[in-house]
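Field reference: sequence -> structure
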Amino acid sequence: MADEYKMLIGGKYVDAEKRFTVTDKYSGEVIGELPVADERIYESAIETAQRGLEELSALPAHRRALILQKISETLQEQKEEFTGVLCQEAGKPYKYASVEVSRAIETFKFASEVAKSIHGETVPLDAATGSENRMGFYLREPCGIVGAITPFNYPLNLVAHKLAPSYAAGCSVVLKPASFTPLSSLRLAEVALEAGLPEKAINVIYGPGSTVGEWLSKDERLAALTFTGSPPVGRRIKELSGLKRVILELGSNSAAIVEPDADLEFAIPRLVTGSFAYSGQVCISVQRIYLQEKIFESFLERFVDKTRKLKIGPPEDEATDIGPMISEGEAKRVQSWIEEAVSAGAKVVTGGKRESVIYHPTVLTEVKPDMKVVNKEVFGPVVCVTPYDSFEDALRMVNDSTYGLQAGVFTRDVNKAFKAIKTLKVGGVIINDYPTYRADNMPYGGVKESGLGREGLKFAVEELTDIKMVVFNL
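Structure field:
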């Protein structure tokens, strides 16, 4: 029998009549039954968060920092437990689930440090004519209640990236985790309460985006909404959000350029990992690789050879590289996109095979810019490999996208590196590594349809605080 879980509002467990199930993504076994929030429960969560805001914002910075540090320490103590939850509810292979927990540990540690360094600055008002006798400075204060809507692919660390900066800033949170993967979020909320977070500052509710997501988007009592997900949903949130600030981490079809002078011994295995880790269900997964034509054949041969050696199996097996996709429906969608590309002339070099929820790592060549596998976000284990003549051609092809999250450039030529930095229209340019690279303290976010605002603890805190200007007339 599946375990039964509840929502967590103000430190109390809340049930509802309507329920949904969570499955082990590899076996299909039901591992949890959870309630769906109705409007009454939603209202209770918001009202509770309003009281939680008063309590949390009144805590001194060192207290908030200590709570965040204790969350980090508890996650470290319970790392294996959290890793196991991610293997089951997300179908994430053990090696990647373990790394995600390690990153969440570090995310809360960074937040603890940032909480103690939130500050304003003095402003030289006497630089303005008529303000000779004025002295000014500004403070940063918590913006208010934060609504957080999180995705299935990083159900622990992307929740951490919503909660940790909110608590560092002094904001309470209403969290709606993805219905595919809510169990790690609930357990994380329990850890936060055990660490001393005021009970009303964390409120976890479940439900579809069409109800709970829209309520959060429209609610004027929220000061900010932070969302990670697809561009269409991001657009909808932006339409509904009114004057609240919105942080949107959206899609990508991230590209990498490989020059002949690159360290191929490093680049090839790195790009295999970037293309297929967690079955490509990563916002900055490598979807497009552009190879200088002189190295195209040799690179492709070695890349495909390493791809074929990836181990497919159950997530709990520490040797598994490729596990299930989040659902069979998603695996079927990827299959249909590949079939559509092949019918239009693309060539499957390896992969192109589905077994229930598992899609085999797939390498495509002879693709065209108008194919979905190139210009949309596949969010699956698929990479398109294309030759180019000049470096300028490669930069142009990378920029030929509605997305702009991150791009990778492998070259030892510093002039080409700086040309890429200046030319590429993306939120992050990663030199001599894959575009899948992310450190949790760096500013992370995109341009164009890849989103608005930035995550990364210091930068997220800036998004979630208001500036209050103070002027003394001396």
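Note: The chain has two domains: 3-250+449-473, 255-439.
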